[in-house]
Amino acid sequence: MHRHLLTTLTAWKTRITRLPILLEGARQTGKTYLLTEIFAPQFERYLHIDFLAKPEFASAFEGDITPIKVLANLQLITGQPFNPETDLLILDEIGECPRAVTSLKYFAEQMPEAFVVASGSNIGLLNSFPVGKVEMHNLRPLSFHEFLIAGGHTALIQVYESRDRSKVAHDLLMQQLIDYCFTGGMPAAVNAWFSGNDLEILKRIQNVQRIHEDLLAGYRKDFGKYAGRVNAQLIDAVFKQIPAQLSSVLDESVKRFRFKDVSPPKSRYAEFECAINWLHHCRLVLLNFPVEGQPRAPLVAYRKPSRVKLFLFDVGLLNHMLGTTYQQIKQQAYEYKGFVAENFVQQELAVLGLEPTHAWTDTRAEIEFLLTDTLGRIVPVEVKSGKRTRAKSLASYINRYHPEKSIKLTGTPGDATGGRSDDTQDATSANTTVTTIHTTKSLTVPLYDVAYLPALLG
User: Rg for the chain (alpha carbons), in Å?
Assistant: First the structure.
């Protein structure tokens, strides 16, 4: 199963000196598989230390935690040799051993030539952290591109990568996108979907549903295990409310999260802040902050934490929690399921490292996403899940703020060549006879091409 993060890991390996890598992500996103099955074969040997499977490994980090002492202890415990100049050390579920986390600082300072990679699903909950001494990366569920690669349809992968958007290619890619919305990007679910190609479709569907159910049960157990001072029941209440609130709208934009009735008698953001932060730190939710008025860079300066949209970190799990069947997804093709399209876009942006994101809101209009180009200019991105591409909110935004560029993500093949927007109007001064024409370069892009937005932004 290919993961794009492998390219980053391989480049890290080629450096003369390096910081230890700390790979975080929600549980079961494939961190261990990436490190042990895909990356580790690039080394002569690797030593895999799993603190969750074998808590006794923590004894190697008691007392002196300098690299020489730690490596000596690990070799004694495992009975395996280790050469820091050629071998890879994998510290899996490192959050279970705070002393091991601290030891990364000393590997960075005293043994920068060593190949040390740590991973964990509760990194964001740690009380102490070696700031500036590790290289951080986040492994999300498989992106749509990785999903296509897992399917092994070579010709379709080439068409996607070349951005050939003929009708035939578009129809096939949209079919894959529908499958992705059902399966999601969790590796176990993707593997069950594609490895069962010889099985009847009903059996494959059942296999994926069973995996989704097991994953969700595992996350809920973690609420109690790792919640600490945060109320585990409150975390569970917020988590379950995300799909319910997302699905409360159809072809309109997703609304900000409403706290009333989530866990009565609580009704204010301050009472839910810790639960939301806990879910975000464990990478189970994605955040989007609507801004009001004219957006200005940097957008982060205009965030209001209490006005936040919450998306689920995996669209397949979102549909499972809603009880949406594969047949329903196929029949509806998500023509009017705008919230699923938005969750998909948010998920793809997170893979690109764009999370939290921002939106724009007004009394009668809303733009789902605001992105920034390389010159710091704000680009509105409208999401239209179906084939109806007329965007009233985008027209309103353009007429008010005259952006240099706008983007619509739609269910059509699109036209990424750009041109004058249909939503742009001429601006005429009331006191003069001079007419100023502001042209916004408008791009219409198919939904599944969201991963190419950075290149389109310029």
Answer: 24
In angstroms, how far is CA 109 from the centroid of its own chain? Answer: 31
Q: Is residue 44 part of a domain?
A: yes
The DSSP 8-state label assigned to residue 415 in this structure reads B
Over residues 185-198, the pLDDT tens digits come to: 999 999 999 987 67
pTM over 0.70? The answer is yes
243 and 119, same structural domain?
no
Mean pLDDT of 328-355: 85
User: CA dist 95 to 24, 72, 91, 126, Å?
Assistant: 10, 21, 10, 7
Residues 331 and 436 in one domain: yes
Asked whether 410 and 400 are in contact (CB, 8 A), the reply is no
> What range defines the domain where residue 255 resides?
228-458
Cα–Cα distance, 309 to 288 (Å, whole number): 5
* Crossing angle between the packed helical segments 67-78 and 98-110, to the nearest 10 degrees: 120
Burial of 11: CB neighbours in 10 Å, binned 0-12, 13-18, 19+: exposed
Domain boundary among 85, 113, 138: 138
Mean pLDDT over 427-433 rounds to 38
Q: Residue 33 is part of a domain; what is its CATH number?
A: 3.40.50.300
- Strands 115-120 and 88-92 come out as parallel
What's the structural domain count of the chain?
A: 2
Instruction: Provide the pLDDT for residue 251.
Output: 59
CA distance 389 to 384: 6
Q: Answer yes or no: are the C-beta atoms of 291 and 358 closer than 8 Å.
A: yes
Judged on CB neighbours under 10 Å (0-12, 13-18, 19+), 286 is buried
pLDDT tens track for 239-282: 999 999 998 876 578 889 999 999 999 999 999 999 999 999 99
Among residues 228, 232, 229, 190, the alpha carbon closest in space to that of 207 is found at 190
pLDDT at 428 over 60: no
Q: What is the mean pLDDT of the chain?
A: 90
Instruction: Give the pLDDT mean for 383-391.
Output: 68
Angle between helices 232-246 and 338-351 (to 10 degrees): 120
- Tell me, yes or no, whether 392 lies in a domain: yes
Return d(Cα 279, Cα 92) in angstroms, integer.
21
% of the chain beyond a pLDDT of 70:
92
Question: Could you tell me if residue 200 is inside a domain?
Answer: no
